[in-house]
Amino acid sequence: MMNGQGRVSPGTAAPRKERSCSWLNIWVFLIFALPVKAAFVTICLVALLDGSYGQYKTLLQNSTEWYCVPSSSAEKMDGWMCCPKGWRFFQASCYYLSPDTMSWAESEQNCTGMGSQLVVINSKAEQEFLFNLAKEKVTNIYETKYYIGLAAYENGQWQWVDQTPYENTPMWTHPSCLSEQDLNAHHSLAH
């Protein structure tokens, strides 16, 4: 009870103050903030990784099974190089021999649709790998032909699909490696 001077009389309880449940508000906030924060971190991580896949983004999205080998490359942080099932790994790239018969333009479009491109051959070792890969896939290498990413444009000069100019090098020693063929129906070789 209060006396006339606004003081509490002895033997009476102090007036009750309104108490807020601030500790409850903090827990409710934390419980709801944690999933939002986790979602934000996940979105940022996916966006970061999304940019690092480059040309393999579509390839990764379209394939559900993988073949992985340990990576000896210092540039690969995860220590593995993976190719979709049915593709072959060689020197940090994945290769695919299409069983479908198509024109060069259709082959190029098919490879692009898989997040890839017709193969650009950069070394004698890569050429040998591709030649041996083609031999594994067919019974008679001279009856089955594969397109590579080399085309002659209006000026008559050969150019790779990645816009690298073709340089006549000694690596093209096999007689059937580079000749102007009928562009109607061959298989594609994706890289």
Describe the fold and architecture.
The radius of gyration is 33 Å and the shape is elongated. The protein has a four-stranded mixed β-sheet with strand order 3-4-8-5, with helices on both faces. A two-stranded antiparallel ribbon has the order 1-2. Strands 6-7 form a two-stranded antiparallel sheet. A hairpin with a 5-residue loop joins strand 6 and strand 7. The chain is built from four helices and eight strands. The protein is an alpha+beta fold and 191 residues long. 32% of the residues lie in helices and 16% in strands. Among the domains are: 28 residues; 97 residues, Mannose-Binding Protein A, subunit A (Mannose-Binding Protein A, Chain A), CATH 3.10.100.
Annotated CATH architecture of one domain:
Roll
Judged by helices, strands and strand pairing, the structural class is: alpha+beta
User: How many beta-strand segments?
Assistant: 8
* The top level CATH class name of one domain: Alpha Beta
pLDDT averaged residue by residue? 67
Instruction: Report how far the terminal alpha carbons are from each other.
Output: 90 Å
Spatial strand order of the main sheet: 3-4-8-5
**CATH H-tier superfamily of one domain:** Mannose-Binding Protein A, subunit A
- Helix percentage range: 25-40%
Name the beta content range.
Answer: 15-25%
CATH topology tier name of one domain: Mannose-Binding Protein A, Chain A
The parts where pLDDT drops under 50 for at least 5 residues are 38-58, 173-186
Helix count equals 4
The succession of helices and strands, N to C, reads HHEEEEHHEEEE
Task: Give the overall form.
Answer: elongated
Main sheet: strands, sense, barrel: 4 strands, mixed
Gyration radius, in Å? 33 Å
Keywords: Membrane, Transmembrane, Transmembrane helix
Subcellular location: Cell membrane
Membrane topology: Single-pass type II membrane protein
Organism: Ficedula albicollis (Collared flycatcher)
